[in-house]
Predict the 3D structure of the following.
Amino acid sequence: MIVPDSEIGNYIFSKGKKYSYFGGNDYLGLASHPEVKEAVIRAVQKYGVNFSASRCTTGTFDIHLELEKQLSDFKGKQDTVVFASGYQGNGILLEILKGSYSTVLTDQYAHASILGGIPRDVKIMTYNHCDTDHLEYLLAQNRINTPLIITDGVFALTGEIAPLDRIYPVVKKYNGTLVADDAHSTGVLGKNGRGTQEHFNLPGDEIYQTETMSKALGGYGGFISGSKKLTELIRKRSATYQASTALPPPVVAAGMASLKIIMEDPGLRIRLLEKTGKMREEIAGLGFRTSGYGTPIIPVMFSSMERAKNLSLFLSENRIIVPYITYPSAQGLHMIRITVNASHTDDQIAEVIGILKKWIEKKGT
Ligand SMILES: Cc1ncc(COP(=O)(O)O)c(C=O)c1O
């Protein structure tokens, strides 16, 4: 395993060796952006490294309110609540909405944070992956009224965009609630980078989104934006929100600096998706099996883990970092996961394609 001893960016370094980096989720290249780093340094100088208190006691500082205001502007929503992680967001939302839904239905391949966030005493059903007909069948067959349907907006491993345009009418028909976990969509999809709801042009006040600053926003921490009523409920009712330490100064400062860049330069997102689109076409053209069209995630799938592992190793021997996926939630997929960021150069992408061609010559697809 290559353990980096540098910041992340187009390249990473390990023990003096330079590697082209196509891993992680820093889609817009903001995690090590000079303006973000400077903002973080200034925040640490002013506030130190931790506020060391819950938001409900003495842990709410001016910069939390500023960040929440900026996130609300970015999302075009009334208000926002920030908390420790995107992982927590699903649990927080499902906890405070409890009582308004009868049953939770999730995609078969929902992220671990969705499954972990469903309250223990709530009935759960899973529908086949991205299969709206199956979702509707389950609702009709079981005579479910007021369900809550929760899905990844973009699936972390396969990069597929959930068919919210088809799920939404089904949810409406059964008086349900729709939640999209937009961890991998925020900052990337939609005209203003607001995620899957904007991507599909669905009414923003009828779909809940759980989001994170830890991927395209390059920083850390989760958030939920919505009406004042929703954010007040979170502040008043969520034990997770109330009983954990407020986001620390460097994290808050990073979020604000990244948001400023994202809102001032929509071209970042456009360049990212153009680059990824081209790279994915080339990879598919080589005969590899892939998915995730329209997102910066390019999986390359195999029928055995051994092949995925070998390709990841072959790439690293050629100074390119692309992980193979071993998570328990990997859906029985054997894959490497290539992620593109907005500042990857054409030469870097061409180099990956060249190495993949060499691999095919040796081993086939
Ligand atoms: C779909 C999805 N939801 C939530 C998370 C968790 O986000 P965070 O890393 O901010 O806790 C992830 C990240 O791994 C994810 O892929």
